Amino acid sequence: MDGKRRASIKIGALVDIVLKKDQPTGKLTRGHVKRILTNSPTHPHGIKVMLEESDMVGRVQEIIGERTI
What we know:
The chain is mostly beta strands. The chain has strands at 14-19, 28-36, 48-51, 57-65.
C-alpha cells in the first residue's frame, strides 16, 4: 500500500520508510510505526512517522501490513 495517505497508516503498522539521509539513494528502513508526525491528510513524498524500534524518523514509502499478535 501507498504511504502518501495518513488515513491508511496505523500505529503499530509495519512500514518501509526512507530516512532524510537516505533520500538520495532511496535506501529503505523497515519498522513498526510508533507515532505519525505529519498532520495533513496527504503528503506527496510520504507521511512522516517515527519507528518504535529505533525512534528513527522518515517518510513512509510502503505499508507492509498491520501488526499481528
